[in-house]
Amino acid sequence: MSANSAFNDEKGGSSSVGEPEYGHDPASGGIFSSDYKRHDDLKEMLDSNKDSLKLEAMKRIVAMIARGKNTSDLFPAVVKNVACKNIEVKKLVYVYLVRYAEEQQDLALLSISTFQRGLKDPNQLIRASALRVLSSIRVTIIVPIMMLAIKEAASDMSPYVRKTAAHAIPKLYSLDPEQKDQLIEVIEKLLADKTTLVAGSVVMAFEEVCPERIDLIHKNYRKLCNLLIDVEEWGQVVIINMLTRYARTQFLNPNMNESLLEEGSDKTFYGSDEDEDEEEEEEKDKKAEAPAMAKRKPYVMDPDHRLLLRNTKPLLQSRNAAVVMAVAQLYFHLAPKAEVGVIAKALVRLLRSHSEVQYVVLQNVATMSIKRRGMFEPYLKSFYIRSTDPTQIKVLKLEVLTNLANETNISTILREFQTYIKSMDKDFVAATIQAIGRCATNIGEVRDTCLNGLVQLLSNRDELVVAESVVVIKKLLQMQPEKHSDIIKHMAKLTDNIQVPMARASILWLIGEYCEHVPKIAPDVLRKMAKSFTNEEDIVKLQIINLAAKLYLTNSKQTKLLTQYVLNLAKYDQNYDIRDRARFIRQLIVPTEKSGALSKYAKKLFLALKPAPVLESPFKDRDHFQLGSLSHLLNAKAGGYQELPDWPEAAPDPSVRNVEVPEWTKCSSREKRKEKKVEKPFYSDSEGESGPTESADSESDSASGSESGSGIEESGSGSESEESEEGSESEEEEEEEKEKDKKKKKKELKKPVQESESEQSSEEEERKHERKSKQRKSESESESDEEEDSESESSQTESEDSESEAEVKKKKKAAESKPPSKPVKKDNKKEKKEMSLLDLDDFEPAPSPQATPVNSFLSNSLATDLEGLSLSDAVLSPATISPSSALKSYEMLHRITGEGLSVEYCFSRQPFSPDANMVAVQMQFTNNATSDTKNLHMEDVKLQSGMRVKEFPEIELLPAGEMVTAVMGIDFCDSTQAANFQLCTHTRKFFVSIQPPVGELMRPVFLTENEFKKEQGQLMGMNEITEKITLDVKCRNEHSIVQRVITAANLSRVPCGSDKECRFAGRTVTSSSLVLVTVATKEEGAAKLTINCEKMVIGTMLVKDILLALTQ
Amino acid sequence: MIHSLFLINASGDIFLEKHWKSVVSRSVCDYFFEAQERATEPENVPPVIPTPHHYLISVLRHRIYFVAVIQSEVPPLFVIEFLHRVVDTFQDYFGVCTEAAIKDNVVVVYELLEEMLDNGFPLATESNILKELIKPPTILRTMVNTITGSTNVGEQLPTGQLSVVPWRRTGVKYTNNEAYFDVVEEIDAIIDKSGSTITAEIQGVIDACVKLTGMPDLTLSFMNPRLLDDVSFHPCVRFKRWEAERILSFIPPDGNFRLLSYHVSSQNLVAIPVYIKHNITFREGSSQGRFDLTLGPKQTMGKAVESVLVSSQLPRGVLNANLNPSQGTYTFDPVTKMLSWDVGKINPQKLPSLKGTMSLQAGASKPDENPTINIQLKIQQMAISGLKVNRLDMYGEKYKPFKGIKYMTKAGKFQVRT
């Protein structure tokens, strides 16, 4: 039995002969000797019916595993219990299984079915733990099962399960690297996940499986940056390290310009201390780039680069040293020189931590302090050494102090060093002497002081100290030997006492090298050495030969015989190096007939002027390893280390990080920012840019229309106002009207085409016509005659008093008087879109009675909106006019992935009449393909629990080149979880999802000021979130604030007595929880944003959105 | 990431091993033992030891080495920080983290380690989550468990795992709602021979013990937040709020936790609470040395200096010390040459002193190194930097909690060179 033999091995020889003794020696062999017996009773216990017995048995088994005892013979008995009901037994069985499955593959397979069942369990905890154990069993046969399970779990609803799936990826990869391609697909999918829980784990998997696939990061880069602060700390470390590498490949060197300047200034930097440490590669870079220099544009940091730096900075405050270090290395490798300084403080703080942390941090500080000395100079005193520090810490601190030394602080540092020399820790003293030597070579002014100090140390009682001093003095003397012959003499005397080989060797070398300065002493030293030659260490022997040779060349009269003697001794030495050297030197210096031309040059060979050694830090050039990495610490490449790439010469296309946006939402001037917002709808800043005015308008417009009960009117006016702007200059009205006319004509031109194409005309189709014409009529009416329009308006909103009537008029005017600048931008496409917006409502079922309450509240909110507008109208100046855009739309299916079919959706903010708890989502299908698409419908809706969907009616035919819109309703249950479903055509199925921004999860509600205050009072404390903000320059007046807030969230304005405050109210669609928003403005664009909502999650997300809307 | 973990006690026995991936033979620890032998002091074992196939990263705490085995590149601090977190968790669970405690609770330890790492990557390290997964052993629970056969393992998925506040569990209930905050400051200083300060800085922490029902949202504001120069927070603290208003706003974890650690800006002069007069001399040729030490209070803002403990590593040549303390007791360990003097409270009227002679090895030359004197002390009801909490408010819950704030100053690494 294999287990038994292993067991015996472990025991060693002690009882290997014969039977194990039972309980013979309870103290030492107790556990061993009774193992057989014990295992039997453990088996019995495991087979029993009682959970408590099983648990007891498992506990004992686990205790044995923990001690490293082999219990593999119990495998069959344990595995049976994998399906045990008791959760602790189960967990312990898992522990056992994972430990031994590799050894007992066949038996382990018995347990697989249990896990497969577990994977389907409704409880996410059980699903996750089943996957966890399944993937931890290292049995190759189950690779396909694992692969399936991982794929399944990667699209699980629970983020916890998805996290587990991410963890399982590297496990499977290490088991079977051939699965790489499939695993990369899963990683790609999980990288797109938006929850913080998953982010860290999937990046970890990415790093282990496919760190070279940097392209997978592009689309997720911004999301990762934004999520970073909320990711758990371990994930943060991994993500930051990965992003450092990513940034190195994608952005330009922020210090590029400085290096260019330096080159321009004729390399003066070699002289200055600060730049001495300039990275070599940088120089190389510069040289390579020199021709291109003229062409180089001034460096502008990529906004994404900035985003990374900005979002990592707060993490310097983390309590986790690893996170702080990760950020520090990121800044060191990526930030412009001027900004790197911020990390010093945090790193110095880590020096208070455990000594192991100090050790690692100091290593990194040592490397950094070489390149960026200025950064740590203010913290010089934090590196002072305490007698209680462990030696390895002391030595590292010394290293840092030496790196930081310069002309100004050298005196304090040397004084500090003086106290260190008196330390009891001799290793540390030796290191201090080395450090003094380095300071002396680096800083010329203190060289003599240091030398004198070191010479004094030569009379120290401790041999180690003396020896170390000798070695250092030797190096220093080499710099200016002629001045210091007395020191050499002094050292020659030391040979009698010093026994440390290195020191003796150093002295001998010095005397040999400078024998001309000490002509009398040198032969005498050689004489003494020759005497003790046989007892010396090898390095000393070599130096004796060396000395002999040099003396022979300079002073052969006195030393000829001695040299011969030494060489003869060396000839028979045990060490072949020494024999070798002796032979070589003899040939070279002793002239014989056979000796060649070389011996003539012997003197030149031996006594050539040797350059003084450069004492440099062992940490120099370590920064080619990524700081904070294991490889950096060891100064050797560790397995799996990812090289930190050099900066690219030219930045790769930054647009790869953009997620492609549908063209019509692109606003030509701000393309980039818009794109950004589409990528991360959560923190979308779009609301800030797309003129919020118009949405406020559309809001009220639709409200006014809703009274009439016609959905078309609503959307008609909505789309109308889409382009409308707050510009009430009357002199431009005429022009606009003309424009409108033109547009109308275009519309009319197009409509027939569409009609003719939609062959299957039905009753509905006809109704559509009717409505359209009616719509057109009302439109033209309103345009042609304002007076009339306002009257009709007022008739609709009878309840309003005369004042509000006037408001309505004003507003209407505003809505219609379109900005003169607008039409230029808007091309045909835009118009087409508008039209389709009209079309859309045809699919909406006729308003049902259920919808009326919603409508009525909308009409209520009208008043508030109008009030808001009336106020703002007064303040409004032409300068604040912002370009308007449509309701923000999101891409659901790109035309490439959709094989010609593209789908976009937007939240129309219309009440969804079939179900008031649903949010209306308006979808626009465009068929860009050359063939018709048929039977567009949705299938296989996957939702979080509680969510519901009202599907859109099937679209039977979508001819090539056409577009069509449809409306569906989704009850998101007040969460921003995406609704996933399949979009099916007659040929294909596409997985798509709709994710709502939090602002769309609410509907406006009308409150009076008092009601508002009362409600707010009840939503204090945790339900209240306050943020101080600085308003965007373009958003300082009340009007634009209202606009932006309302664009960001579907809220209505609440009247307010103070003009310093704007208030908004709404209710979440599903649970009708009140959402109250207050923006109180102060001087200079400062403002306070308060959100009261009993749903904290909604509140916090809304804060982010509104904040963005107001500050950007 | 982390492959395996070995726990090694002071005498070099591996008393626990845990593997998260394939089993790594415990013979890998031989490299560690080698390094241990080479290092003279236990704390001098290098934290990272490369071996041909693995890397060993270790931390030493409570005289136990926690040795993690890793196989490929990983930030060393990541592992070190994690190992310390493991130790903290053990301490949290068992009260102490000793070999005996770990051996007694080996099953809980194993369950904990299983939850904390998955495939070598940290999974749940937040003590609140862990406590929901695996209940800490108490005497009562152990008894109940043995009788009823119920378990220590929680049945539910910890709510924290998924919530926006992963550090706090839901459904916390207390009859007495209380929140205590300890502001503890430590003075790190090096004083030179003549009594002048070479370097001094103040590091502080705010440790909290919060036992509040429900989901309280606390804010803590300071009278003088400007004092805080560099801070690091528990993840619960809202960073934005601090940046903007210098207010600590947080939903606290349940139980004990470190809310904040801070560094007081070095511009402020640090008050040094005690002074020391020392005269430690050895004479050439004589086998006697003089030892004379007097302590006195300096800048204590009128508060008493308590629990003073003076210790000093005397030179190797010292055989014995024959001293006479004016108060307290002293001990001298002739093996380690460690002298420690438990002074107690400093009475400003009658300054404590320790005087006497040291006997040296006969014939040996006078030691040329000077001992350093380490001082520990405590001052109650005062934060030496002057930091003061302004107010503590609670939102989100209806009840009135009992709030308490305590200040204390301690000496951190406080050394006097002689």
TrEMBL record, chain B:
- Protein's UniProt name: AP-3 complex subunit mu-2
Which PANTHER family did the record assign? AP COMPLEX SUBUNIT MU (PTHR10529)
Report the Pfam families cross-referenced here: Adap_comp_sub, Clat_adaptor_s
Membrane topology annotation: Peripheral membrane protein
What species does this protein belong to?
Answer: Sander lucioperca
Q: Which SUPFAM superfamilies does this chain map to?
A: Second domain of Mu2 adaptin subunit (ap50) of ap2 adaptor, SNARE-like
Residue ranges annotated for the MHD domain, each copy included? 176-417
Where in or outside the cell?
Answer: Golgi apparatus; Cytoplasmic vesicle membrane
